[in-house]
TrEMBL record:
<keyword id="KW-0808">Transferase</keyword>
<keyword id="KW-0012">Acyltransferase</keyword>
<protein>
    <submittedName>
        <fullName>1-acyl-sn-glycerol-3-phosphate acyltransferase</fullName>
        <ecNumber>2.3.1.51</ecNumber>
    </submittedName>
</protein>
<dbReference type="InterPro" id="IPR002123">
    <property type="entry name" value="Plipid/glycerol_acylTrfase"/>
</dbReference>
<feature type="domain" description="Phospholipid/glycerol acyltransferase">
    <location>
        <begin position="67"/>
        <end position="186"/>
    </location>
</feature>
<comment type="pathway">
    <text>Lipid metabolism.</text>
</comment>
<dbReference type="GO" id="GO:0006654">
    <property type="term" value="P:phosphatidic acid biosynthetic process"/>
</dbReference>
<dbReference type="GO" id="GO:0003841">
    <property type="term" value="F:1-acylglycerol-3-phosphate O-acyltransferase activity"/>
</dbReference>
<keyword id="KW-0443">Lipid metabolism</keyword>
<dbReference type="Pfam" id="PF01553">
    <property type="entry name" value="Acyltransferase"/>
</dbReference>
<keyword id="KW-0444">Lipid biosynthesis</keyword>
Amino acid sequence: MIGKIRTGLALFWMVAASLVLVPLQVISMKTGLWPETVILKIWHRAMLWALGMRVHVVGEMVKTRPLMIASNHISWTDIMAMGSRFDVTFIAKSELNGWPIFGFLSRLQRTVFIERERKRKSGDQASEIARRLAAGNAMVLFAEGSTGDGNMLLPFKSTLFGAASMAIAEGAAEHVVIQPVSIAYTRIHGIPLGRQHRPLASWIGDMDLVPHVGQLLAEGGLDVEIRFGEPIDFSARSSRKEATRLMEERVRDMMQQSLGQPLPVR
């Protein structure tokens, strides 16, 4: 009963907040009266409040541009956690663009959609990401190419770093800073999550979205930890495979730090 009441109240808050904030975001995108990320941050924070999710940050996002952020990926809530704190733009799989609600919301924050299975379009998509990088957008790349279970890191895909190479090759930038970021769901209601319960937050593969949203709304009380690592400078002489290896290694180390010694509840 408590879970149903909580879910109902949370859904009411999410809808009410969206009815107010979405039109303001549309106005922002069409007129430029204020930075687009202002409303986005408020919306993400409103959604996290409804979910009962708290975000903890270790380290800082570098101020140098062009900047690509290489992160692991666990759930759709990763976007809200990052978007609630930082001025970033996301790179997402093309399927998201067709989803009834999430696709529309993703377009409101100018997400770049990529079709990994269609090589003919990969050049155009990398070029769009390169253009955004050159324009000063901090682009978040979920480098695993899929979502993990919250316990282990999947191998990073070097092909996804092609946009950094293209930005340099096209003369849009002399170099691109790539910064590793780890995301870890560490506690529920203040109690550290163990290996068995960490998948509660994860949204993997063909898992239905609506039941997962309902489960998180009913549970509430999750803590997510975002860690920023040491960036690398990627230039025309850099090896894409080596950059991928370094990012994967650093993200794995930071993720294990968060899972092994989560920050205390404040």
